[in-house]
Each structure stands twice: as C-alpha cells, then as structure tokens.
Amino acid sequence: MIFYSEEKGHHSHMIRIVLAEKDIACDIKEFDPEGKMPEELPTINPYNKLPVLVEREVTIYEPRVILEYLDERFPHPPLLPIYPNDKAECRLLIHRIERDWLPVVDRMMRPKISQKEFDSLKKELVGLVSGIVLVLKEKPYFMSDEFTLVDCYMAAILYRLPYLGVSLPNTKSFASLSAYQEKLFSRPSFELSLTDSERDLKYSFN
Fold first, then answer.
1. H or E element at residue 154
2. pTM exceeds 0.90 for this model
3. Residue 38 contacts residue 31 (beta carbons within 8 Å)
4. Which residues are registered as beta bridge partners of 142?
5. Could you report the per-residue pLDDT of 167-206, keeping only the tens digit for each?
6. Rounded to an integer, what distance in angstroms lies between the CA atom of residue 18 and that of residue 63?
7. In terms of CB atoms within 10 Å, which end of the chain has fewer, N or C?
8. Which is nearest to 54 in space by CA: 15, 9, 20?
C-alpha cells in the first residue's frame, strides 16, 4: 500500500491519523504541493492532486472515500459505528464538516490569499469553533462515546488553529473544547500521524 500525502495538508493528515490508529503498514510518500509533485500523479488521479491511496489494483483519490475504504478494509478498531442509524448520523456530521468547515480551512491554507479575505474567513472559522463548545460537553468525543472518523477530521482541523491565527480563550466556557483537543492530540495515533512540517506548523504564528 502506498499513500501519496501532502506533508502539511489537513486532508492528508486525517488519513494519516487513520493509518496510525489502525496500525496499517503503508509506504507514505510526502510531497510539498508548492514543490515537485509525483510524476505519476496525473495517471493515478484525473484531478492531478493529493492525497491518493494505491493498494494493488485499487487507486483511490477522494479523501472521504479513502477514509471509509480504510475503515472497511481494516475493520479493527472500527471508526464508524456498527448500527445503521448511528453510522448515518456519523456520516452526516462528516458531511457538515466537509460542507461548512473544510472550504474555510482550504481557502485559509492557500499560499496566496489577501489579508481581507483571510480575516473574513478567520472570523467565520472562529464562529464555527465557538459553535461546537456546548456539543463537546455531552460526550467524550464528538457526539460519540468512541473515537470515530469525525474526530479524525476535527483533529486535523483543530491542530491548525494556531497556524491560522485562531487562539482559544482560556475561559471556563471553552474548557470542553480545550479538553477535547487535549484528548485528540494525546492519542498515540495522532503523534505518529504528524510529519516534520506539521510539527512546526502550529508555531508559525507565534
């Protein structure tokens, strides 16, 4: 199995978290999208972008499809609920993250962005982060008693908040969010998922 990954990309990061969580043997090839990309990329992804997973005759290039493929291909530990109704709720949460959160982070992470647009997106991201504080008080993980794919998405996004200039208030009202972040970032799989570039990433705005 080969995983073509962006070394600082949040889409690639959430997949690396799953690879580590399930202890999957995989050759991870890291690339900087601003530098030289893999020569074979146009032949394995018609959209000519990362991430891409290749296993034998199977080539997958959509992050969500990669995540669900890995969860089904390597079922232990499961990262989606077993029961259909719970699984549907989990997938709806992922859909909301992809629809509401990822477009904002994608645009903020672009190498060329105006200060005006960045500030506007930052305000939107702060609103999204503030909106989950109460939800995080209800369960150990994101609306779940167990670590799921939803948490893989959130871990990759929340880790990038300092880089994106978003500081969490050190107040009691944000305690649930701080505790959630600590829970995610202290998992062995999260530590294993980080590239050298990502280890430096959170200090970029300090």
1. helix 149-158
2. yes
3. yes
4. none
5. 887 788 889 999 999 999 999 999 999 999 998 875 343 3
6. 11
7. C
8. 15
| Dist. CA 66–CA 50, nearest whole Å | 12
Q: CATH topology for 2-73? A: Glutaredoxin (3.40.30)
Residue indicated by tokens 């995989």 = 26
Closest to 66 measured CA to CA, from 144, 109, 2: 2
Q: What is the CA radius of gyration of the chain?
A: 17
Give backbone dihedrals phi and psi of 60, rounded to 5 degrees, phi first. -125, 130
Which residues, at least 6 apart from 121, have a Cβ–Cβ distance to it below 8 Å? 104, 107, 108
CA–CA gap between residue 186 and residue 191 (Å, rounded): 7
CATH of 84-201, one of 1.20.1050.10, 1.10.540.10, 3.30.450.20, 1.10.8.50: 1.20.1050.10
